[in-house]
C-alpha cells in the first residue's frame, strides 16, 4: 500500500527519496501500532484513529486560513480548509458518542452512525464544490459562516429535532438502507470530485495534485468498506478506519506538509507563474526590448550607455548578438553621426525620468526605428524598439504617388473635380477651373451643383431617371453623361462627363469624382461628318450599281480560272510524283556510287597493294643477293617505285573508302577526314563533337560523310580560306546537327540552282535534295565577305551502338591458305618470329625477305587471329608480325589476348593503311610498334630487332 501511496515521488532527488522512505516507514510503524492497539482495546483504536483525522482536519484549517493570501487559487484552498474544520467537528462528536466511550451516556449506536454519514456528506460535497470556486470572489468569512450554519443544523437535526434519517438499528439488522445508499452516493460524489481534480490539474503543483488524488481514491475505498459491517466493533469498521487514516495522511501531505515545507512552489506558485509569464512575454514579444545604464563623462554629460539586458527580438532587429555588458559605441562606433543624437536623448530620459517616443534612422544599421524610452531608475532606462523601415518606405512611396497623381491631374486635358461624402468639392484641377469659370480658392468647400451645374433638360445619361445630381449606390460606375455645362458667367458649353464613386475598404462611398471635357469641337466635327456621310451614301449607291456589273464579269472570269486551277492541280500532283521518283533514284545512285567506291578500294587493298608489297619485299631480298652494283641500284630504284605505287594505291583506297569511317562510324570518319584535309590540302579542319557516339544507318553515315567532304572541298576551292570548323551536337531530344563553318569569301545563297551545281561534285543543291530525302534539313547561311555556314539536321533516335559493317572492308574478305612453315632453329641467339596475315602473297614476300636475314628465324605463319593465338601459345616466339585486318578475329583482339597470356612476346602491327588510323587501338591492346606493309625489308628487320632488344 505504501508503494502505491508514494509512487508520485518517482523522479525526485536522492535525498528526497530517502526522506520519503523514512516518512513511509514511520507511517507504517504507526499503522502497525494502531493494529496492535486494536487487539488490546478496539475503542482505543477507534478513538486514536478518529482523533488523528480530527487533528489533521483542524491543522488543515489553520494552515489554509492563515496562508490564504498567498495561494494562487485562494477560494479553493480557503473553502477546503474551512470545510475540513467542520468535518473534524462532526468526526469529534462522532468519536465522543461512539458506543462504549460513555463520554455522552445514554446515546444508542444510531447517533454516531448519523454523525459519520453527515460528516462524509459534508466532506464529499465540499470537495466537489471547491472545484467550482476558482473564479469566485466570495470572502472566506462568508464560507466560515455558511459551514457553521450547516453544521449547527446537522447537530440539531440529530440531537434536538431527531429528524435525521436512521442509519443503524441494532435490533433491526444493523445498517439501514439509507446508510448503505448514502455511502454509495458519497462514493459517487467523491468520484465526480476526482474527475474535477483531473480536469483542473494544471492549476496545482504536481506533488500537491498527486496527494489530493490519492486522498480521494483512498476515501472512496474506505466508504465502500463501511457499507459491509454488521456490528459497530466488526473488522470492516476497523479496516475502514485504516483507510480513513491513510486518506487523512494524504491530506496532511498535500495541504500541511507541502504548504509548510514548500512555500515557494505552493504558496508562491502565483509569483512563479507571473515570472514565467513575464519571461515568456519578454522572450516572445515582437518588439525589441533592451535595458541600459547611462555612462557619464567627467562633466556629467551622457557619453555612452551600457547594455544590461536584451530580448531575442532586439538581437533580430539590430543584428547584434551577446551584447550584454558591452557599450553602444563598441557596437556602433559611428552612432554620433546618426541624424538623431541617441545618447543625449536617452541620457535625458535616465536623468529626468520622463518617457519619450522618437522615430529616427540608424545609418550604420540602415534602418528606421520607432523607439519608446522609459526610466526604470535613476541612471537606467529601458527602450522598446520597432523596425519601421517598411512603414517609412511605404509613406515615402505614398508621398511620391500622391505627388505623381497631383501632377497628373493638373496636367491632363480633362477637367477633374472630386467631392467628399457630403458632395462638397475637395479638389479641382486647372482644366476644370477654366471650363467652369471657378477658381480653386472659390470652389473648395462648395457643393458640387454650385460649381458643376448641368442643364438637366440637356443631360443625356444612360439612366433617364436621374432628376438631380445624385448617384444612388445601386447604379453601376462609372456613369457617363452628356449635357450643357452652365459656367460661372452663365455661358454654356457642351461637355461629356463621367461620374465615379470613391470607396473605402468597406465599400462605403466616401466621395465622387467628376471627369469632363469640352466637346464643342467634337460636336462640330460630328455635324460635318454627318454631312459627309450623306454625300458618301449617294456616291456609294452610284458605285454599287457599277460594282454589280463588275461582279458579274468577275464571276465569269473566276469560273474560267477555276478550270485552269484544276488542270494546274493535276499537273502539280504528277510533278510531285516524278520528283519523288527522282529523289528515290538519287538515293539509290548514292548507295551505288559508294558500293562501287568500296569495290574499287577492296581491289586496291586486297589485290594490287598486297602484290606490290610482296613484290617490294621479294625485290628487297633480291637486292641483297645481287653482286653487281648496277643491278643492285636498279633493283633499289624499282623498289622505291613500287613503294611510291603502294603509297598512291593506299591513298586512293583511303579516299574511295575511308577505313576509319567503316571501322568507327561517323565521328571516327570525320576525325580521319580532318587529318586527310590537313595532309592533302594543308587545310585545317577543327572538329569537335558534343556526343561520344552516333548510331546511324550505313547509307545515312555515307551520305553525311560525303556531304561534309564536299563542303570542305568547296571551301578549299572557292572560299579563299585555310580553315573551317565542323561541329556535331544533339539538337533537342531526337535530332542531330552537323555544322560546317568557314570565315572565307562567302556567297549569295539565292544564286544556288540545279544548273550551276551539277558540275561541282555533289553540289549544294544535290546535298540539300539528298538530305531532305532522308528526312533531314540542309540550311545555308552566307553572304559575300562574311563567310559561310552549312547546317545539316538529321532525325536521330538513340539505339544500341552499331557501326558500318566491316564485311566489305578491304582487309576482311581475303582467304589465305594455311601455309604455316615452321623452320628449324639455326642458332640459340636467333630471334624467333611468327607471321599473321590473311594474304598468302604477302606472307611469301615476308618469308622470302626474312629467310636470308642473319639472326632472324621465321618459325610459323597464320592466316587469321584465332590461328595466331594458338601458335603463340605453342611456339612461344620472341616476336609476332600481326596484320590488323584479318577474317574472324582481327589483329587488335588477337594482340589483346596474346599480350594478356604472354606479355613477354613482342608484337609488331602490320597494315596497308596509314599508321595514325590504327596505331592507337592496337598499341593500347599490347603491341610495341606499328609497321607499314609498304616498308623495306631492312626497315622491317630493324623494327623486329629493336622491339626484341629493348626491355
UniProtKB/TrEMBL annotation:
Residues 479-531 form the PAC domain. Residues 519-557 form a coiled coil. One of its GO terms (molecular function) is 4 iron, 4 sulfur cluster binding. Residues 832-948 form the Response regulatory domain. It catalyses: ATP + protein L-histidine = ADP + protein N-phospho-L-histidine. It comes from Desulfobacter latus. Residues 807-821 have a biased composition (Low complexity). The keyword Transmembrane applies. NCBIfam families: sensory_box (TIGR00229). Its main location: cytoplasm. Its cofactor is [4Fe-4S] cluster. Residues 802-824 are annotated as: Disordered. Gene3D superfamilies: 1.20.5.1930, 3.40.50.2300, Histidine kinase-like ATPase, C-terminal domain, PAS domain. This is Oxygen sensor histidine kinase NreB. Its EC number is 2.7.13.3. Residues 401-474 form the PAS domain. GO terms for biological process: regulation of DNA-templated transcription.
Amino acid at each position: 500500500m505504501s508503494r502505491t501511496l508514494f509512487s508520485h515521488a518517482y523522479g525526485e532527488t536522492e535525498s528526497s527519496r530517502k526522506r520519503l522512505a523514512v516518512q513511509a516507514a514511520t507511517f507504517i510503524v504507526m499503522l502497525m501500532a494502531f493494529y496492535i492497539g486494536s487487539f488490546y482495546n478496539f475503542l482505543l483504536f477507534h478513538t486514536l484513529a478518529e482523533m488523528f483525522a480530527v487533528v489533521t482536519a483542524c491543522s488543515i484549517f489553520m494552515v489554509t486560513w492563515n496562508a490564504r493570501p498567498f495561494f494562487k487559487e485562494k477560494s479553493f484552498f480557503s473553502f477546503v480548509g474551512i470545510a475540513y474544520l467542520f468535518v473534524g467537528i462532526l468526526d469529534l462528536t462522532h468519536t465522543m458518542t461512539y458506543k462504549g466511550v460513555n463520554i455522552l451516556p445514554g446515546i444508542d449506536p444510531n447517533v454516531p452512525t448519523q454523525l459519520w454519514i453527515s460528516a462524509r456528506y459534508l466532506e464529499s460535497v465540499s470537495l466537489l464544490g471547491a472545484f467550482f470556486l476558482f473564479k469566485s470572489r466570495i470572502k472566506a468569512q462568508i464560507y466560515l459562516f455558511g459551514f457553521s450554519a450547516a453544521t449547527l443544523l446537522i447537530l440539531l437535526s440529530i440531537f434536538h429535532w431527531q429528524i435525521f434519517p436512521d442509519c443503524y438499528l441494532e435490533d433491526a439488522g444493523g445498517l439501514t438502507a439509507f446508510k448503505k445508499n448514502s455511502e454509495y452516493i458519497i462514493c459517487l460524489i467523491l468520484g465526480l470530485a476526482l474527475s474535477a481534480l483531473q480536469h483542473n490539474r494544471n492549476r496545482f503543483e504536481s506533488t500537491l495534485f498527486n496527494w489530493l488524488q490519492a486522498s480521494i481514491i483512498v476515501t472512496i475505498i474506505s466508504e465502500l468498506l463501511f457499507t459491509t459491517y454488521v456490528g459497530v466493533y466488526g473488522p470492516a469498521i476497523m479496516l475502514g478506519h485504516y483507510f480513513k487514516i491513510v486518506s487523512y495522511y494524504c491530506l496532511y501531505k498535500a495541504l500541511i506538509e507541502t504548504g509548510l515545507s514548500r512555500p515557494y512552489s505552493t504558496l508562491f506558485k502565483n509569483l512563479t507563474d507571473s515570472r514565467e509569464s513575464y519571461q515568456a512575454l519578454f522572450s516572445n514579444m515582437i518588439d525589441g526590448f533592451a535595458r541600459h545604464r547611462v555612462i557619464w563623462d567627467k562633466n556629467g554629460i551622457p557619453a555612452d550607455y551600457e547594455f544590461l539586458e536584451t530580448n531575442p527580438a532586439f538581437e533580430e532587429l539590430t543584428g547584434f548578438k551577446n551584447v550584454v555588458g558591452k557599450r553602444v559605441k563598441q557596437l556602433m562606433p559611428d552612432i554620433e553621426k546618426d541624424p538623431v543624437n541617441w545618447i543625449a536623448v536617452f541620457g535625458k530620459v535616465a536623468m529626468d525620468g520622463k518617457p519619450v517616443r522618437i522615430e529616427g534612422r540608424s545609418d550604420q544599421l540602415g534602418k528606421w526605428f520607432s523607439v519608446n524610452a522609459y526610466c526604470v531608475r535613476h541612471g537606467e532606462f529601458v527602450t522598446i524598439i520597432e523596425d519601421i523601415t517598411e512603414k517609412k518606405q511605404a509613406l515615402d512611396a505614398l508621398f511620391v504617388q500622391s505627388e505623381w497623381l497631383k501632377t497628373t491631374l493638373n496636367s491632363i486635358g480633362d477637367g477633374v473635380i472630386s467631392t467628399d461624402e457630403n458632395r462638397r468639392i475637395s479638389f479641382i484641377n486647372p482644366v476644370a477651373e477654366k471650363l467652369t469659370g471657378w477658381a480653386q480658392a472659390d470652389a473648395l468647400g462648395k457643393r458640387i451643383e454650385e460649381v458643376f451645374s448641368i442643364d438637366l433638360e440637356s443631360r443625356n445619361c444612360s439612366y433617364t431617371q436621374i432628376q438631380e445630381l445624385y448617384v444612388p449606390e445601386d447604379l453601376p460606375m462609372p456613369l457617363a453623361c452628356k449635357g450643357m455645362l452652365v459656367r460661372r458667367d452663365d455661358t454654356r458649353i457642351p461637355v461629356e462627363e463621367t461620374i465615379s464613386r470613391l470607396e473605402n475598404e468597406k465599400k462605403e462611398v466616401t466621395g465622387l469624382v467628376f471627369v469632363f471635357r469640352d466637346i464643342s469641337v467634337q460636336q462640330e466635327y460630328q455635324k460635318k461628318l454627318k454631312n459627309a456621310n450623306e454625300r458618301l451614301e449617294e456616291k456609294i449607291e452610284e458605285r454599287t450599281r457599277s460594282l454589280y456589273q463588275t461582279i458579274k464579269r468577275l464571276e465569269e472570269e473566276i469560273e474560267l480560272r477555276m478550270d485552269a486551277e484544276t488542270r494546274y492541280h493535276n499537273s502539280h500532283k504528277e510533278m510531285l510524283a516524278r520528283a519523288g521518283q527522282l529523289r528515290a533514284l538519287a538515293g539509290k545512285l548514292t548507295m551505288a556510287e559508294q558500293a562501287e567506291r568500296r569495290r574499287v578500294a577492296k581491289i586496291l587493298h586486297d589485290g594490287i597493294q598486297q602484290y606490290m608489297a610482296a613484290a617490294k619485299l621479294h625485290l628487297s631480298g633480291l637486292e641483297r643477293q645481287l653482286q653487281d652494283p648496277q643491278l643492285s641500284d636498279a633493283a633499289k630504284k624499282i623498289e622505291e617505285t613500287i613503294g611510291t605505287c603502294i603509297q598512291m594505291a593506299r591513298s586512293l583506297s583511303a579516299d574511295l573508302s575511308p577505313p576509319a569511317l567503316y571501322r568507327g562510324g561517323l565521328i571516327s570518319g570525320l576525325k580521319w577526314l580532318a587529318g586527310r584535309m590537313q595532309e592533302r590540302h594543308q587545310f585545317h579542319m577543327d572538329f569537335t563533337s558534343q556526343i561520344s557516339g552516333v548510331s546511324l544507318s550505313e547509307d545515312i553515315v555515307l551520305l553525311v560523310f560525303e556531304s561534309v567532304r564536299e563542303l570542305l572541298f568547296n571551301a578549299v576551292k572557292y572560299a579563299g580560306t585555310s580553315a573551317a570548323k565542323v561541329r556535331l551536337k544533339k539538337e533537342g531530344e531526337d535530332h542531330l546537327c552537323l555544322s560546317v563553318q568557314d570565315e572565307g569569301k562567302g556567297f549569295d545563297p539565292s544564286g544556288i540552282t540545279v544548273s550551276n551545281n551539277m558540275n561541282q561534285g555533289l553540289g549544294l543543291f544535290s546535298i540539300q535534295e539528298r538530305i531532305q530525302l532522308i528526312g533531314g534539313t540542309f540550311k545555308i547561311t552566307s553572304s559575300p565577305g562574311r563567310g559561310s555556314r552549312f547546317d545539316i539536321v538529321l532525325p536521330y533516335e538513340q539505339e544500341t551502338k552499331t557501326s558500318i559493317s566491316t564485311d566489305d572492308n578491304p582487309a576482311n574478305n581475303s582467304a589465305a591458305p594455311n601455309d604455316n612453315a615452321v623452320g628449324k632453329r639455326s642458332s640459340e641467339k636467333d630471334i624467333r618470329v611468327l607471321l599473321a596475315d590473311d594474304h598468302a602473297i604477302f606472307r611469301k614476300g615476308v618469308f622470302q625477305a626474312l629467310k636470308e636475314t642473319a639472326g632472324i628465324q621465321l618459325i610459323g605463319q597464320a592466316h587469321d587471329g584465332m590461328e595466331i593465338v594458338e601458335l603463340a601459345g605453342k611456339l612461344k616466339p620472341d616476336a609476332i608480325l600481326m596484320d590488323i585486318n584479318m577474317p574472324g578475329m582481327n589483329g587488335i583482339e588477337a594482340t589483346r589476348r596474346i599480350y594478356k597470356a604472354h606479355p613477354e612476346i613482342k608484337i609488331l602491327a602490320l597494315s596497308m593503311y596509314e599508321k595514325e588510323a590504327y596505331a592507337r587501338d592496337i598499341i593500347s591492346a599490347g603491341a610495341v610498334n606499328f609497321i607499314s606493309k609498304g616498308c623495306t625489308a631492312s626497315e622491317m628487320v630493324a623494327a623486329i630487332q629493336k622491339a626484341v632488344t629493348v626491355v
